[in-house]
Amino acid sequence: MARQRILRFPEGFLWGTASASHQCEGGNTNNQWYRWEQQGHILTGEQSGEACNWWKNAESDFALAEQMENNALRLSLEWSRIEPAEGQWDSAALDRYRAMLTDLHRRHIKPIVTLHHFTDPIWFAERGGFADEANIRYFVRYVTYAVENLRDLCDFWVTINEPNSYAFLGYLLALFPPGEQDLTRTLHVLRNLMQAHVEAFYVIRRQQPQAEIGYCLHYHILDPANELSPLDRSVAGIQNTFFCWGALQAAETGRFPIPLSLMLPSLAHAPGSRDYHGVDYYTHEMVRFDPSNPAEIFGRRFIRPGSIRNDPGKGIDFGEIYPYGLYRVLKTIYRRTRGNKPLYITENGFSDALDDRRPQALLEHLAMVHRAISEGIPVRGYFYWTLVDNFEWAEGWGVRFGLIELDPQTQERIPRSSASLFGEICRANAISEELVGRYAPNALEIIFGTTNGAPHQIPV
Ligand code: BGC
């Protein structure tokens, strides 16, 4: 019998899931998302309510992560709990976070803590939030306080989750609060969030010199509808620059590329202000030149026809399941940054309520991570989005990303097949042919065959 083929991951590789406070905790009534929900903006008409009940009992879900032999877990702190009114600190909220982090340590799960994941205290939003550069100091003050009080329990910080999603969804696409549609403001918010990261980085570095500090960007690839069309190519290139590659360049050099640099000031002290690249990757889209769409820089986005899809939401179509895109993103970051830092996949996931595409999708994405690692790209961890179904922002409970199904009414949890698959991968720190054969036989050829998962050779 032929020897089993196995993709082994490096020793010490971090395996976990990612989550965010507002999506899981429940009872958050003091941030701008709560107000947005109250104003009826959630497309399903729902509210986050008790969410996954983590404020009262995150520990029972941590136990599920432990059963899956996850060695890390990414969660976020809710600024609006820690600083409910400007300059007022809630020590009981910190105690709750201390209890959660302590519980994770007890289970030998390394906490990865995000300091800002889309939510702002209402008082901060009322001052103009991150649209006003002068407000960065409030964020930095909160970070200083949080890190000072939690640094004995965490040494891996994500300062800000996806500055680009926060800016574009809230200030251009109007799907997130404050629901604006203004490109110039969008770009300033992006720039201010990135500057906020830089300032937070140096504060944490002083407080905790040995900590790993970074942030994550959302890498959403846009490919030209017609490779041969110069207009499609240039509009795809510009949208890519606006959404993610311009931000990466600014993070590395302090300067945004043209045309962003014509509108945005440089970032002060940016070079060197990250210990790792946090990579959030979900999908790609095609884009075609469309002079009737100036709001999106003359590009019309669409999903590749005939592709295997995530479950769509009402406002966001989560689009194609495109594993090769993860490889492309890792490779491009590595190349553009000359391999200067380790990479962590801080988020990658699939909306699939029936769990009939997720096992194969998960395996194929991980095979792409493995391929990147085998080519020398220092990827050090993978965080699946998410552990249990959680409140999906503007989509409410309408789309389900969890390894574990959650009924928000009864709080009952039912592990999906993907949960046991992920558990087996984490336990083995590897993906074997036998495992793929059991969970997603259709992926055997893609993962272990000669095609190596590349559906078509798009240059990275
Ligand atoms: C966000 C998560 C969100 C996920 C799925 C990510 O961009 O960080 O909060 O739930 O996408 O939409």
Describe this structure in words.
This protein is of the alpha/beta class. The protein is 39% helix and 17% strand. It has helices spanning 21-24, 32-38, 54-57, 59-67, 79-82, 91-106, 122-126, 136-150, 163-171, 183-207, 230-253, 260-263, 323-336, 358-374, 417-428, 433-439, 444-448; strands spanning 6-8, 14-18, 72-76, 110-114, 156-161, 212-224, 277-289, 299-302, 343-348, 379-384, 404-407, 412-415, 430-432. The chain has an eight-stranded parallel barrel, surrounded by six helices. The protein has a two-stranded antiparallel sheet with strand order 1-13. A hairpin with a 4-residue loop joins strand 11 (404-407) and strand 12. The two termini are 38 Å apart.
List the helices and strands and how they pair.
Blueprint: E1 6-8, E2 14-18, H1 21-24, H2 32-38, H3 54-57, H4 59-67, E3 72-76, H5 79-82, H6 91-106, E4 110-114, H7 122-126, H8 136-150, E5 156-161, H9 163-171, H10 183-207, E6 212-224, H11 230-253, H12 260-263, E7 277-289, E8 299-302, H13 323-336, E9 343-348, H14 358-374, E10 379-384, E11 404-407, E12 412-415, H15 417-428, E13 430-432, H16 433-439, H17 444-448
Parallel strand pairs: 2-3, 2-10, 3-4, 4-5, 5-6, 6-7, 7-9, 9-10
Antiparallel strand pairs: 1-13, 7-8, 11-12
Helix pairs in contact: 8-10, 9-10, 13-14
Bound molecules: beta-D-glucopyranose.
The site of beta-D-glucopyranose has 10 residues, from loops.
